[in-house]
Design a protein that fits this description.
With about 100 residues, the protein is of the alpha+beta class. It has 1 helix and 5 strands, in the order βββαββ. It is about 20% helix and about 45% strand.
Length: about 100
């Protein structure tokens, strides 16, 4: 929301998987599907390292399911990732997959 996006849905689930946040970026007319990963500060891996090819595939299929059943206008779609460490947003990466 700090970037001016409108939240369309949170925790959208389909038979393929889940998308944590679905947002709309009005400046680019883009639907943004966001994967949020949490970790504690002393974790051995970064939150974004846990986004596997299998997870990416599930998110893409879930996004297509959402778009097929939800009447929403958009010019493009994008997949972002947000890493949260100890409850604080550490990074917001656009177009990660």
């Amino acid at each position: 929301m700090r970037r001016g996006y409108s939240i369309i849905r949170k925790n959208y689930r389909s038979s393929f998987g889940e998308v944590d946040i679905i947002a709309y970026d009005p400046s680019t007319e883009t639907i943004v599907f966001v994967e949020v990963k949490h970790r504690k500060r002393n974790s051995l891996s970064s939150p974004l390292e846990s986004i596997t090819p299998s997870k990416v595939n599930k998110i893409r299929k879930t996004a297509l399911k959402f778009l097929s059943e939800t009447p929403v206008r958009y010019s493009s779609i994008r997949f972002d990732a947000i890493s949260v460490v100890d409850g604080r947003v550490e990074d917001h990466l656009e177009n990660v997959f």
